[in-house]
């Protein structure tokens, strides 16, 4: 039975949450007015209307934006001026833009119409090696944010409502950056749990804080979401938060991640796909289909038949005029679908997202085996706490394992045979027992790494 003081606290807390939400909504309005102008609400309505439009209208808008971008690139950037020696270039004339091109031709890729002071410097997290530096412009960020606002609402997000973010390393920020981050979190009504340092103490503290703040949505790395959900399960902690949805982004969303998160948090997980270089690429709807963000990007599959054969994803960013990314090989593998989604939205659908090219294994016959095969077979195996498979060559793999007391020789045989079944019986699997499998330099978890990235069939 609650004491008088406890009852008062329970009554005051919803009032505080309501007041904080109202304050945050007003702050969001002020922020968007500052960034996008007084008409930001009508601009968001226009963006939403396009993304809700019939497919023919969406594709017509995309073609118009693509034509305008190609003309701008060929006229104002040294890199594309050299490639596209025509007044009306076609995208089929443009060779794919590789990461190495960006590193070597950084200044030549920048538009002469945007002086240095109008460029916004950015960089990837370096999950595939060395971080990639590039430039964007203010309009790119304004348009990107409008699209993120639209798609995140599919998962129940809205301006000012409390949100738990399980992401990078805000606790590591120092000085002014630390205080700016805290101030931003306050007015945005966001609460951060450091996804790079998910200790039991940090997760317990976050759970207790969220019991008070009652987040409406969660935004998280898939692996961090899974680790947090596992902690709650193992410690018998049941969230009282009535979540509208969970947004998973920046890593592959494996099925066992989704299943556990939806069970623990009693909310649907919506998979969001994007890249720091090009923004939001696609978002999962309520029916489980990944809809392509045709307002901001033009997506191609480098495959003889993109609807039946997976291939590398090529992205053209339609809004970044400071440094155009045209047919950029982002490093992921996918496949398209020609179906009309039962959710009613007519944006084209990305049927499969098979992960990074560096996480996709190749066999001697040229068959691609994506990382999901191994996570499906290895997840939940008795005796295995963590694993990582590295394809060194077509005939040699290293299997790193963190094991527990349930480990047996039978488990070892099962794991080795599962790898050989996928990659070939002649493949040598070297098993290494380690105390921990560290995160990558970008802070993300890598279960599968392939060093065989070149095609094997000549």
Describe the structure.
- This protein is of the alpha/beta class and 458 residues long.
- The chain has 2 domains: 40-358, ANL, N-terminal domain (Rossmann fold, 3-Layer(aba) Sandwich); 360-450, GMP Synthetase, Chain A, domain 3 (2-Layer Sandwich).
- It has 13 helices and 19 strands.
- It has helices at residues 4-36, 40-51, 55-76, 78-83, 99-104, 106-109, 138-152, 175-188, 200-213, 222-234, 255-265, 372-378, 409-423, and strands at 120-123, 133-136, 163-167, 190-194, 217-220, 245-249, 269-275, 279-284, 290-292, 297-302, 311-317, 328-337, 349-356, 361-362, 368-369, 384-393, 396-403, 428-433, 448-450.
- An 11-stranded mixed beta sheet has the order 4-3-5-6-7-8-9-13-12-11-10, with helices on both faces.
- α2 (40-51) crosses α7 (138-152) and α12 runs antiparallel to α13.
- The chain is globular and about 65 Å long.
- The chain starts with a helix and ends in an 8-residue tail after the last strand.
- The mean pLDDT is 87.
Q: What structural category do the secondary elements indicate? A: alpha/beta
- When the domains are counted, the total is 2
N- and C-termini, Cα separation: 75 Å
Estimate the helix proportion, in percent: 25-40%
Number of helical elements: 13
Q: Order the strands across the largest sheet as they lie in space.
A: 4-3-5-6-7-8-9-13-12-11-10
Major β-sheet annotation? 11 strands, mixed
- Secondary structure: number of strands: 19
- The CATH topology of the largest domain is Rossmann fold
CATH superfamily of the largest domain: ANL, N-terminal domain
User: Which term fits the overall shape?
Assistant: globular
Over all CA atoms, what is the radius of gyration?
24 Å
Low-confidence stretches: none
The CATH architecture of the largest domain can be given as 3-Layer(aba) Sandwich
Our estimate of the beta-strand percent is 15-25%
CATH class of the largest domain, anyone? Alpha Beta
Q: What's the overall average pLDDT, rounded?
A: 87
């Amino acid at each position: 039975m609650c004491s008088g003081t406890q009852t008062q606290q329970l009554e005051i807390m919803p009032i505080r949450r309501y007041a904080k939400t109202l304050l945050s909504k007003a702050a969001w309005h002020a922020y968007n007015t500052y960034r996008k102008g007084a008409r930001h609400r009508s601009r968001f309505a226009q963006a939403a209307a396009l993304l809700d439009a019939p497919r023919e209208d969406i594709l017509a808008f995309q073609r118009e934006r693509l034509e305008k971008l190609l003309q701008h690139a060929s006229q104002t950037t040294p890199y594309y001026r050299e490639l596209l020696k025509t007044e009306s270039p076609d995208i089929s004339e443009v060779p794919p833009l590789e990461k190495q091109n960006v590193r070597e031709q950084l200044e030549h890729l920048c538009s002469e119409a945007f002086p240095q002071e109008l460029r916004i410097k950015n960089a990837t997290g370096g999950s595939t090696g060395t971080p990639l530096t590039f430039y964007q412009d203010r309009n790119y960020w304004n348009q990107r944010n409008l699209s993120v606002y639209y798609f995140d609402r599919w998962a129940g997000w809205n301006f000012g409502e409390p949100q738990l973010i399980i992401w990078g390393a805000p606790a590591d920020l120092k000085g002014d950056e630390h205080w700016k981050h805290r101030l931003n979190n306050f007015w945005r009504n966001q609460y951060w749990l450091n996804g790079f340092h998910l200790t039991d103490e940090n997760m317990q503290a976050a759970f207790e804080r969220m019991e008070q703040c009652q987040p409406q949505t969660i935004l998280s790395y898939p692996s961090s979401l899974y680790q947090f959900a596992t902690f709650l399960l193992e410690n018998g902690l049941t969230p009282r938060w009535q979540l509208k949805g969970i947004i998973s982004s920046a890593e592959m969303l494996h099925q066992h991640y989704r299943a556990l998160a939806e069970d623990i948090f009693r909310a649907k997980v919506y998979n969001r796909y994007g890249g720091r270089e090009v923004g939001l690429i696609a978002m999962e709807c309520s029916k489980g289909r990944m809809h392509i963000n045709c307002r901001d990007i033009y997506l191609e599959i480098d495959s003889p038949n993109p609807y039946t054969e997976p291939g590398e994803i090529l992205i053209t960013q339609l809004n970044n005029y400071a440094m155009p990314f045209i047919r950029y090989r982002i490093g992921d593998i996918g496949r398209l679908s020609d179906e009309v989604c039962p959710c009613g939205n007519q944006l084209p659908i990305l049927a499969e997202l098979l992960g990074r090219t560096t996480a996709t294994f190749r066999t001697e016959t040229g068959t691609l085996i994506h990382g999901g095969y191994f996570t499906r077979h290895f997840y939940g195996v008795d005796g295995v706490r963590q694993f990582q498979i590295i394809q060194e060559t077509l005939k040699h793999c290293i299997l790193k394992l963190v094991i527990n007391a349930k480990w047996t020789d039978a488990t070892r045989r099962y794991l080795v045979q599962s790898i050989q079944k996928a990659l070939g019986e002649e493949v040598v699997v070297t098993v290494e027992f380690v105390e921990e499998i560290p995160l990558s330099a970008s802070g993300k978890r890598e279960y599968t790494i392939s060093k065989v990235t070149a095609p094997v069939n000549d």
